[in-house]
Amino acid sequence: MxxxxxxARAEADRVLEAVRAALRLLEAIPDAAVRxxxxxxxxxxxxxxxxxxxxxxxxxxxxxxxxxGMDFPEIGEAIGTDRSRAWRIWKGMS
Length: 94
Description:
Shape: elongated
Number of helices: 4
Oligomer: single chain
Largest sheet: none
């Protein structure tokens, strides 16, 4: 199980590194006013992007449950949470 957590951490770190690299593109905007406005727009729209990560997690939990036949205590353990949270993720409530 620790190996799976380490793999998940490594994958999360890889994705976060790519996100940071994408955000660093803002620094390359030469006009300071345009750069500030662009950064503000990214900040304003960022909360909506959080939804994508939630949807990806929900789809993965759905695969574990419907395709692999795991029950929610097993899913909770596999993803590092408890069974009730695993169920709420699956239902799109969390």
